[in-house]
Amino acid sequence: MDALDIARWQFGITTVYHFFFVPVTIGLSFLVAGLQTAWWRTKKEKYLKLTKFFGKLFLINFAMGVATGIVQEFQFGMNWSDYSRFVGDIFGAPLAIEGLLAFFLESTFLGLWIFGWDRLKPGVHLATIWIAAVGTLLSAYFILAANSFMQHPVGYTFNAAKNRAELTDFGAVLTNKVALVTFPHTIASCFMVGGAFVAGIAMWHLVRHPARDAEAFLTALRLGGATLIIAGLATVVTGDSQGKVMTEVQPMKMAAAEGLYETKQPAPFSLLTIGTLDGSKSVYKLEVPRLLSYLGTGSVNGQVKGINALQSEYEQKYGPGDYSPNIPITYWTFRAMITVGFLAMAGGAWMLWSTRRQRMPTSKWMLRTALALPLLPLVGMSFGWIFTEMGRQPWAVFGLMPTAAGVSPGTTAAEVLTSLIGFTALYGVLAVVEVKLLLKYIQAGLPEVDTTVPSDDSDAPLAFAY
Amino acid sequence: MELTTFWFILIAVLWVGYLVLEGFDFGVGMLIGLLARNDTERRVLINTIGPLWDGNEVWLLVAGGATFAAFPEWYATLFSGFYLPLFLILMALIVRGVGLEFRGKRPEAMWRRRWDAAIIVGSTVPALLWGVALANIVHGVPIDSHKEYVGSFFTLLNPYALLGGLVTLTVFIVHGSMFVALKTVGDIRKRARILALKVGALAAVLAVAFIVWTGFDQGKLAVWLLGLLAAGAFVGAIVAIFRGREGVAFTATSLTIGLVAIMLFTGLFPDVMPSSLDAAWNLTTHNASSTHYTLVIMSWVAVIFTPIVLMYQSWSYWVFRKRIGVQHIPMDVLTK
Fold first, then answer.
1. B101 and A74 in contact by Cβ < 8 A?
2. Which chain B residues have a beta carbon less than 8 Å from that of A109?
3. What is the mean pLDDT of residues A204-220?
4. How far apart are CA B89 and CA A423, in angstroms?
5. What one-character DSSP code corresponds to residue B268?
6. What letter does residue B184 receive in the DSSP assignment?
7. Which phi and psi angles does B275 have, rounded to 5°?
8. Is the pLDDT of residue B332 over 70?
9. Nearest to B79 among A81, A415, A461 (CB)
10. pLDDT of residue B335
11. Scanning A118, A225, B241, B275, which has the fewest C-beta atoms within 10 Å of its C-beta?
């Protein structure tokens, strides 16, 4: 492997890992804010207990997101310096704005929320978690706008003298049609993750310890389950509009997602193929006629271009080379994303159904589903992003800059390998520590809460301390 | 004023903010090993920065993002060139951040000892390496005609840069001690004052040596003047803590760090990364910058949002203004 391959592996590993914490943060921040709002309005103790219980899990997760986030910003410069020189004029702005508008908001107001229980008035304290939650959305928008430029560059001109892309219309970058469809799809999926997280944990408690805090956990289950299903439907709808934009601006990605080698009109949607991994030769295939035409073009008779036609088209446009992404990965991650997404929704629906009219499920299968549920939309999002980013290859910026041209020319393979091994080993250890800690807090159940007015004694212990 | 100059100043301001703010929480992190005598005292220290450290670290992220947006060539050359030090800084910041958040989440002594080590190492490494990195940027490193860094890891470990690293390391310990003296009550407050004096004497010698070296290196009158002011502020800080004026002392170390950073950036301007091989290959505010259009947009964003950030971040410091001591540390861990 050379520096390029190692740098790509590092980007993949660190980004997929970082993105385990991001959707939990986005989804759960709003759910915790909602629970605290319910407590603030009703003064029912169960809402406060749930706020503190899920709030603690949220913070354990958030700490990891913060810690692994710095790597994301730094490694563009470290491993991809030629990419940074090429797009910095455009790509740097949303990153800087994300820091200034979102990261300050999230970090400051979460600090106030964590430690502010006895120092802020209840209404002000409630506002801090909402502000932090809005901060997560701002952060998502700007980073997705930056990513969307890589999928579908807009609002720029190419300066040949300086060999770089230069910004001509920042509004166009922020309203990139890819960003406009990717943002709702991503946020809806984040709410699926948050909902599944809350529902799965609540259900686990209901089955394992039916006598402990059942009423509160039933409330949590319904909140989580409903969030999961509504957000799931939103994910389907937004995914559909995303598919249409993708077919238009990155037809090769759509063709690769389907293993569609020859242009077809109408085009069927491939459910699965058994044969070669890249779907080029199949011994068995299951297809839904005309569905791909509908998904890609909005018409059941629409034409969807195949990989071979696009390949020759791109060769004429960009010169000789291989312009198709890794087909087995794009084909299977696309399917896996959709499958686990629907499984999660089914799991949520089953949980809501089996707890109708205060019923308490006891089956082993329910317990297993409860354990699996939080993971399903989470890995679904990983599959989705692996598909999106691998499907963009061989380009770093579609049609403008190949990935291979972006790597740092002066950085040695040994250096990149050092950081790859270092980050991977550290992330591995931290994953074990984090999961164990989460499980410990999940098992501990709802905390005791103290709703007495804080004392004025200046030597009284803090309401919360590390 | 040219926009490139404005952005150079803004990035300098972000570094001043980062070094002044994270400087004291790096210091507090190191004091866990130097000052605290038992678990409760360690918790007192951690809780002085608990609600604040993450917001402080964002100054670095914004400084990095602003460099990317305003001077992509600077960002690219610096981050790819200083690869291994930045890798070490990242590893340190990761274990430190997780340590600060996770340490109090379990009661076992072994768990806490391990995270204490993570916090101490994770605070020491960047406190040292940021000084090394900044000194190297200002002094100049081997950069070729293609704006690529062509030195090695060991090129960066030259005497001037190492002296810079020792200055940030020791000054941050003093700065952290001033902060602890200002934010705690009881025995730990007294010991923080004494430690500030002891380490302060060493830090003063190192800092004066570094300032003089920088003055000769850069040969600018403004650098000498700023260096003199920084040294004066540091002496003032030592005198103030000796007389028990903790607020004044902390303000004075903040000023010292800010002035040293301004001194370095003044020495640097109008370069952003001078080449030690050939002055024609220097990266400057002109040849490293983004387009005028990008800078205009970023300027509007910065002018509107920076004051808002400063307002709410100051408010959070105000909310957590109360001093804490061992009596304020609640005992229960899992139940709250």
1. no
2. 312, 316
3. 92
4. 12
5. H
6. B
7. -95, 135
8. no
9. A81
10. 41
11. A118
**A131/A212: higher pLDDT:** A131
Residues of chain B in contact with residue A462, where contact means CB-CB under 8 angstroms, are 47, 324, 328-330
User: Which of A74, A99, A466 is opposite residue B90, by nearest beta carbon?
Assistant: A74
The ranges assigned to domains in chain A are 3-248+326-444
* Residue position matching structure tokens 């220097």: B282
**Chain B residue whose CA is closest to A173:** B294
Per-residue three-class SS string for chain A: CCHHHHHHHHHHHHHHHHHHHHHHHHHHHHHHHHHHHHHHHHCCHHHHHHHHHHHHHHHHHHHHHHHHHHHHHHHHHHHCHHHHHHHHHHHHHHHHHHHHHHHHHHHHHHHHHHHCCCCCCHHHHHHHHHHHHHHHHHHHHHHHHHHHHHHCCCCEEEECCCCEEEECCHHHHHCCHHHHHHHHHHHHHHHHHHHHHHHHHHHHHHHHCCCCCHHHHHHHHHHHHHHHHHHHHHHHHHHHHHHHHHHHHCHHHHHHHHCCCCCECCCCEEEEEEECCCCCCEEEEEEECCHHHHHHHCCCCCCECCHHHHHHHHHHHHCCCCCCCCHHHHHHHHHHHHHHHHHHHHHHHHHHHHCHHHCCCCCHHHHHHHHHCCHHHHHHHHHHHHHHHHHHCCEEECCCEEHHHCCCCCCCHHHHHHHHHHHHHHHHHHHHHHHHHHHHHHHHCCCCCCCCCCCCCCCCCCCCCC
Quickly state the pLDDT bin for A291 (edges 50, 70, 90): confident
Structure tokens at A408: 């740092």
Higher pLDDT, A463 or B132: B132
CA-nearest residue of chain A to B75? A77
**Cα-Cα-Cα-Cα dihedral of A381, A387, A389, A393, to 10°?**
180
Contact B272, B8 (CB under 8 A): yes
Q: Closest approach of chain B CAs to the CA of A108, in angstroms? A: 5
Q: Which long-range contacts (CB under 8 A, 24 or more apart) does A412-415 make?
A: A412/A3, A413/A1, A413/A2, A413/A3, A413/A6, A415/A3, A415/B83, A415/B84, A415/B87
Q: Which of A63, A67, A77 sits opposite B79 (nearest CB)?
A: A77
Q: Of B233, B271, B266, which Cα lies nearest the Cα of B249?
A: B233
- Do residues B301 and A98 lie in contact, with contact meaning Cβ atoms separated by under 8 Å? no
What one-letter code names the amino acid at B1?
A: M
Q: Please tell me which of A317-331, A347-361, B257-271 the model is most confident about, judged by mean pLDDT.
A: B257-271
Give the Cα separation of A239 and A380 in Å (integer): 13
CA distance B197 to chain A (A): 28
DSSP state of B130: H
Contact B43 A465 (CB under 8 A): yes
Superfamily per CATH, domain B3-139+149-319: Formate dehydrogenase/DMSO reductase domain (1.20.1630.10)
Q: Which residues of A touch B147 (CB under 8 A)?
A: 85
CB contact under 8 A, B334 and A70: no
- β-bridge mates for residue B149, sequence order: B143
For an interface test with A, which of B7, B13, B80 has the most A Cβ atoms less than 10 Å from its Cβ? B80
Q: Give A-chain residues touching B90 at CB under 8 angstroms.
A: 70-71, 74, 423
Spans of all domains in chain B = 3-139+149-319
Say yes or no to pLDDT of A156 above 80. yes
How many Å lie between the alpha carbon of A38 and the closest alpha carbon of chain B?
Answer: 20
Distance from CA of A332 to the nearest CA of B (A): 33
Question: Which residue do the tokens 């860094």 mark?
Answer: B149
Give the separation between CA A99 and CA A106, rounded to whole angstroms. Answer: 10
Q: Do B72 and A166 touch (CB under 8 A)?
A: no
CA A376/CA A372 separation, integer angstroms: 6
